[in-house]
Amino acid sequence: MTASTVLAIALISVGVVFLATSALGVLRLPTFYARTHAVGKSETVGAIFVIAGLIVEHGWDTGTPELVLILLFAFLANPVAVHAMARAEHQLGDAPADADAEEPS
Amino acid sequence: MSTFLLGAAIAIAMITVAGIYRIAAGPRLFDRVLASSLVAINGLLLLLIIGFLLDRVAMFVDLAVAFALLGFLVPLATGRLIGGGQER
Predict the structure, then answer these.
(1) Does A19 have pLDDT greater than 70?
(2) In chain B, which end has fewer C-beta atoms inside a 10 angstrom radius, N or C?
(3) The pTM is what?
(4) Contacts of B40 in chain A (CB under 8 A)
(5) A and B: number of Cβ contacts within 8 A
(6) Is residue B61 part of a domain?
(7) pLDDT mean over A18-24
């Protein structure tokens, strides 16, 4: 078992843990705006770690830049998509619940 | 390594079931679209891992690129269409 295989296994394991956290958040968090955190952050980090592990496993090849581009796309696109959804939900008039707000008068 | 990748693929597939449950049960439209975004990214990762398992990385990377672009388009289009698209 070479060093790159160990590094790939470690990266993919960390990524799967982040993905599991994201799925747990989508299942259990109470409101829509809370669930956007699970999908927008944890899912992005998990995807980045898994793809980075696959890049390490793949080695240096002609297919490596394409995998790097997929990583960059996942890094850029997923928060943008989640932000677009949260913004549309806000435009529909559903205000996020504020935990520190005063009692409504 | 192949066994570990198979295990990771099975784990990601089981994780995706949570997103599919939220698509089915989510109380509002954007809950479903949000969960579909999660399912799209998990499907992208599954495609990549399946490509490594079958030793056909070049083909499956192209499939994953198409899948990622479509998965990015769905929430953007839904947000623009339903939310109106104007600045506030």
Answers:
(1) yes
(2) C
(3) 0.88
(4) none
(5) 135
(6) yes
(7) 93
Render pLDDT for B46-77 as a digit per residue (tens, 0 to 9): 999 999 999 988 899 999 999 889 988 988 88
The domain total for chain B is 1
User: How far away is chain A from the Cα of B31, in angstroms, using its nearest Cα?
Assistant: 6
Number of separate domains in chain A = 1
Phi-psi region of B17 (alpha: psi -120 to 50; beta: other; left: phi over 0): alpha
The answer to whether residue B32 is domain-embedded is yes
B12 reaches A (C-beta below 8 A): yes
Other beta carbons within 10 Å of A45:
18
Residues of chain B with C-beta less than 8 angstroms from the C-beta of A67 = 48, 61
* Of residues B21, B34, B62, nearest to A39 (C-beta): B34
Residue A60 domain boundaries = 3-91
In chain A, % of residues over pLDDT 70:
91
CA atoms within a 13 Å half-sphere pointing along the CA-CB vector of B32:
8
pLDDT(A31) > 80: yes
**What ipTM goes with this model?**
0.88
Q: Are B64 and B44 in contact (CB under 8 A)?
A: yes
Distance from CA of A97 to the nearest CA of B (A): 16
Which residue range(s) make up the domain with B38?
A: 2-83
Q: For residue B10, is it within any domain?
A: yes
